[in-house]
Amino acid sequence: MATRDIVTLGASAGGIDTIQRLVSKLPDDFPGSIMVVQHLHPRTPSVLDEIIQRATTLSVRFATDGEPITRGQIRLAPPNCHLLVEKGYLRVVRGPRENRHRPAVDPLFRSAAWAYGPRVAAVILSGTLDDGVSGLWAVRSCGGTTLVQDPKEAAQSGMPMSALVALNVDHVAPVDRIATLLDELARTEFDPGPAQRPPELGLEVAAAEGAEMGVEGMRKLGRPSGFSCPACHGGLWELTEGELEVYRCHIGHTFGPETLQEAQSREVEFALESALRALEEQSAAARRLSERLEASIPTLGLRYEKQAGNLEEQAAVIRKLLRNGQVQTTD
Question: Which of 211, 201, 202, 264 minimizes the C-alpha distance to 236?
């Protein structure tokens, strides 16, 4: 017999207050182990452990690589590292970014599902875009329990809504009710039955740890998508996970559909800004040549003056697109 005592939480914008509230509702003798990914700035020291510890008597600290999984603990993904679950212990690794984040929610959820199957209870809390959706699919596919914060209560409803649109989850509830459910799940015994693990899930877990996939490895997971990776500009492969589509390059950068679109929008904006800078500099150089040649070679000076005007017109078109918000991201 087993209990659902391996708990994974994923959150982004608005998540810190939500995590505090959730853990404050857990009893002092909570019999499970909780692993948390909150999106953090990669280069800024974090005091997230101190903030969460104020709300609970359970042990809270940033995870360390190789530490054992024990009951009554809350372990947080450190800045700029993925937090992964192995059988009996935790891994802290600098694998490729997923959904533009490190730490990311999906690697934690996938690895917990691969290691513990139906013993996992995975929770999506407040945040934007779709990090965590693929991980929820992995947990569900391995027999675990999926929980999503009620979007109407979430400070940012993007992550909960993305999960609900893509998947049939086990529970949609306010945070207080989620805390109660987690305690019940961690205390209620059940027969886990034979392991059910999609074989491709193991390859994805290995990729998060930094394993070399290569083109041959990607062929085992999916098919070429025709898109380029916004992070490294290599080819993206399209992976089908039940009802979901996920995009991964052979380096390991991974995107859900919403995050891919957002990253592509940013690339368009960056490309237009680069083009605007180049056109303005080229125009300035042409005008400088025109002024220098105006007296000595008037015909050539006039030609450069005309070229400068044409470049300024092109730059004005791009500037208008950028300033009028006609190039938009999905933040």
Answer: 264
Strands (E), the chain: 6-11, 33-38, 59-62, 73-76, 82-86, 89-93, 120-124, 145-149, 171-173, 223-228, 235-241, 244-249, 254-255
Of 5-9, 198-202, 305-309, the least confident: 198-202
The residue assigned the tokens 């805390």 is 179
283 counts as catalytic = no
Using DSSP, state whether 124 is helix, strand or coil. strand
Q: What is the rounded CA–CA span in Å between residue 181 and residue 183? A: 5
Give the β-pairing of 73-76 and 82-86: unpaired
12 is catalytic: yes
Q: Are 37 and 9 in contact (CB under 8 A)?
A: yes
Active site residue 49: no
How large is the average pLDDT for residues 270-286? 92
Residue 248: strand pairing partners: 237, 254
Catalytic residue among 5, 106, 130, 131: 131
For 65-84, what is the mean pLDDT? 97
pLDDT band at residue 133 under the 50/70/90 scheme? very high
